[in-house]
Amino acid sequence: MATIKAAILGFGTVGQGIYHILNEKREELKHKLGIELEVAKILVTDASRERVPGTAHLMTTSMDEVLAEPGMQVVFEAIVNEEPAFGYLKRAVEHKCHVITANKVMFAKRGLELQELAKANGVFVGFEATTAGGVPVIKTMKNILLVNDVSRIQGILNGTSNYILTKMRAQGWSFEKALKEAQNLGYAEADPYNDVSGQDAFKKLMILSALAFGEQPDWADVEVIGIDCISAEQVKDACEKGLRYRHVAEVEKLANGKVVAKVGPQLVDKEHPLYPVDDVNNAVALETNYIGTLTLVGPGAGMYPTASVMVEDYAEIIGKRAGFVVSI
Ligand SMILES: NC(=O)C1=CN([C@@H]2O[C@H](COP(=O)(O)OP(=O)(O)OC[C@H]3O[C@@H](n4cnc5c(N)ncnc54)[C@H](OP(=O)(O)O)[C@@H]3O)[C@@H](O)[C@H]2O)C=CC1
Ligand SMILES: N[C@@H](CC=O)C(=O)O
């Protein structure tokens, strides 16, 4: 049986999740895909710290070393920020590696460029994990778009914000306590300002916009407000009135063809579809011409939901390359 090698760039919450799932599902994936996958390199900033027992020999800080590994064909990327992530993935694609990323900061800005480069090099880019964690919105939208037009997307796209709002309302926790717990649970970004300021949801919305409409609105035209402007008193007042705060991101294509978007907190009542979406869950409602409105709900952050969709991307890519449809 053929063996291919993979690298994991970034070995924090998501990177470790990928490693654990690939180990746990090793035999099953081998059987289903007819290919053995070996994690041969793990790239971090500090290679002296062994995060998972038995991985010290895989650690490196050098992308040159990753790409010099014979048989390297798949690169999972779970680091932070646009650079060096984009530069690393560009090099991986030029080296004819398939790449699978969770990095929405990079992908919102450079995703179209990376996909074009991948096409030119005959490799695939998986980016399901960039948006809504474990919710399969990217693959669902790709399928829908084969037949339908999507006219509007509305959703909760940041798990940390939804978790904080839920705990403030349902448990009476302070904003700080809820954020701390979201960090402990691996939901929050390395810099949680991105979560609570609305920037993380904005980046995910831009990825969905590019997929649905082939374009993004001018970023400067999009109003982005976070949950950091909501006080405990406001959450309590809303609750007493039967209302809930939700952090909502929405983008639509107007009749004149212009794509417009906004991101910010909204008060919703119990008739609203986002009312029951609590904790770390995300929800994405896609308005389409034939299906009508399709809503997906599920965990929007965390080690296993995120890593799981990245391994699914891997299975899909290897299945396509081998010319068969993967059914897991
Ligand atoms: N956490 C989640 O639920 C989700 C996260 N994501 C995205 O996944 C990515 C990773 O998130 P997460 O695992 O939570 O982050 P962590 O902060 O837990 O881990 C980040 C990892 O990246 C490494 N790293 C950071 N900068 C560099 C660099 N310049 N070169 C090499 N390695 C680097 C760090 O190395 P070191 O250990 O040495 O510091 C660390 O291992 C982010 O882009 C995030 O937005 C997407 C969906 C959900
Ligand atoms: N910090 C993000 C992680 C997933 O993208 C979130 O809370 O949604």
UniProtKB/TrEMBL annotation:
L-homoserine binds at E189. NADPH binds at K104. It catalyses: L-homoserine + NADP(+) = L-aspartate 4-semialdehyde + NADPH + H(+). The keyword NADP applies. Pathway: Amino-acid biosynthesis; L-methionine biosynthesis via de novo pathway; L-homoserine from L-aspartate: step 3/3; Amino-acid biosynthesis; L-threonine biosynthesis; L-threonine from L-aspartate: step 3/5. GO terms for biological process: methionine biosynthetic process; threonine biosynthetic process. Its EC number is 1.1.1.3. One of its GO terms (molecular function) is homoserine dehydrogenase activity. It comes from the Bacteria. Residues 136-313 form the Homoserine dehydrogenase catalytic domain. It is an enzyme of class 1 (oxidoreductase). NADP(+) binds at G10, F11, G12, T13, V14, G15. Keywords: Amino-acid biosynthesis, Methionine biosynthesis, NADP, Oxidoreductase, Sodium, Threonine biosynthesis. Residues 10-125 form the Aspartate/homoserine dehydrogenase NAD-binding domain. Belongs to the homoserine dehydrogenase family. This is Homoserine dehydrogenase. It comes from Lysinibacillus mangiferihumi.
